[in-house]
Amino acid sequence: MSGLPCADNLLLVADSYKISHHLQYPPNTTRVYSYFESRGGQFQETCFFGLQYILKRWLVGQVVTQAKIDEAAELYQLHFGSDAVFNRQGWEYILQEHNGHLPIEIKAVPEGTVLPVKNVLFTVENTDPKCYWLTNFLETLLVQAWYPMTVATNSREHKKILQAYLNATADNADGLAFKLHDFGFRGVSSVESAAIGGAAHLVNFLGTDTIAGVVLARDYYGCPIAGFSIPASEHSTMTSWTRQGEAAAMRNMLERFPTGLVACVSDSYDIWNACENLWGRELKDLVMSRGETNSTLVIRPDSGDPPTVVVRCLELLGQAFGVSINSKGYKMLPPYVRVIQGDGIGLQSLGEILHHMAANGWSADNVAFGSGGSLLQKHNRDTQKCAYKCSFAEVDGEQRDVYKDPVTDPGKKSKRGRLTLRRGDAGDWTTVTEGQGTPDSDELVVVFRDGCLVQEYTMDEVRERAKILDGNGGYME
Ligand SMILES: O=C1OCCC/C1=C\Nc1ccccc1
After folding, report:
1. pLDDT at 180
2. ipTM for the whole predicted complex goes beyond 0.85
3. How far apart are CA 77 and CA 73, in angstroms?
């Protein structure tokens, strides 16, 4: 037992109403086929990621045992006040006939793929006609793919902005992968969410403090080390020296971490004083000497109006350490001093800060950003309108296209029939409905079948697919 709620018992990982659904399909239903899509919302394209974690964590291998069936039967008898709801026979059939492996086929777009919303992202179908009820039993769990997909998509939107500003104001975009650091571990709802969301951010970037995400990438995406960080202070390690001791605390950071990158939060009392008089005067020689070993001090403001504070810090540091003009005509601090802004960073404020920097002649290359709640937590299933819907069924041997089309919301209309995902010569994506597609033209790949993970992706492959191609998703006015 992993100590998790539901303790790895897949039979408990569903909405309660699902437990009764095996009794609600037409008699002699032998096949239920459903698909997952994002209908779009904040973003009109989606970076698909995270299904592999769900498959490997919950569905691969012998996931049905007698003990799990008995535990579920007991709980559901209490939960419904009846032992006529839970599908004991159905689960025992899977245990006996399939040795506890799920007779399901899942076809998905390769992880990391970026495609317009409203396209099929994965399909689910039972491979044993007696297990028609299993396809949609799995909805509850599989729809949780909304989270990693939405985090990866949102993180990638930040990358577009950063790349555009680097292209416009920096010598190159070589530092792009470290420009947005994940600060979100504490701000999500669970360690597992941190792992999933943290890994999703790492599809696009290499900087993170969310260790759980690095661990998930190692354990589920074959990546020994998916993200990196550096020694950095927090307010307690600075303020415990007292206000009079702030310079000593800062000096300690430089002496304890004499080479490489070190970050120091500097707004405990007065960020302006810190930049001008502490880093810029009292510790100036120690800061400058880091240049001799290609080492860098990263100064961290952590309060105030972000665009104003970032630019003011750059101005003060520029006065103290000097400024050069890069190939794009923008100001650069010396290589041994940089700024990281980790307060109030989201898609909107990132653009505003970078715009304000550029408007004041500062290159985007001077600053890195940290984002927490906006990066990992400020999303829900509706952000990208992710849904799982049945589009095909077989009843009494008759194959029927299935759909919903609510008169009260045309936006919720679902696709009909078996679906395939086609990629045109121009790289455009089309979802072919009503079984009109052909298997050999289908971009959907069988990733799971009958308890086995048929196709697996490494973080490197995922990152390759998620790369941003044109460097000008820009926001430059
Ligand atoms: O402030 C924080 O809140 C919570 C997450 C971590 C964190 C800062 N970390 C950091 C890492 C690398 C450079 C600078 C800071």
Report:
1. 98
2. yes
3. 6
Q: Give me the helices (H) in 258-304, please.
A: 271-273, 284-289
Q: CB of 342 closer than 6 A to ligand 1?
A: yes
Q: Look at residue 3 and tell me whether its pLDDT is greater than 60.
A: no
Which atom of ligand 1 is found nearest the CA of 183? Answer: 5
Which residue in 102, 163, 172 sits closest to 138, CA to CA? 102
Q: How many CA atoms within 13 Å lie on the side-chain side of 438?
A: 2
- Taking CA atoms only, the protein residue closest to ligand 1 atom 2 is 183
**Torsion-angle region of 329 (φ positive above 0: left; ψ -120 to 50: alpha; else: beta):** left
CB 450 within 8 A of CB 103: yes
Residue type, 420: T
Phi, psi for residue 361 in degrees, rounded to 5: 85, 10
Q: What is the mean pLDDT of the chain?
A: 96
Q: Does the Cβ of 449 fall within 6 Å of ligand 1?
A: no
Sheet strands (E) in 271-347 = 296-300, 324-325, 331-332, 337-341
Among candidates 310, 313, 312, 334, which has minimal Cα distance to 324? 334
Report pTM.
0.97
Give the closest residue to 313 by CA, choosing from 253, 169, 321, 327.
321
Count the neighbouring beta carbons within 10 Å of the beta carbon of residue 465.
17
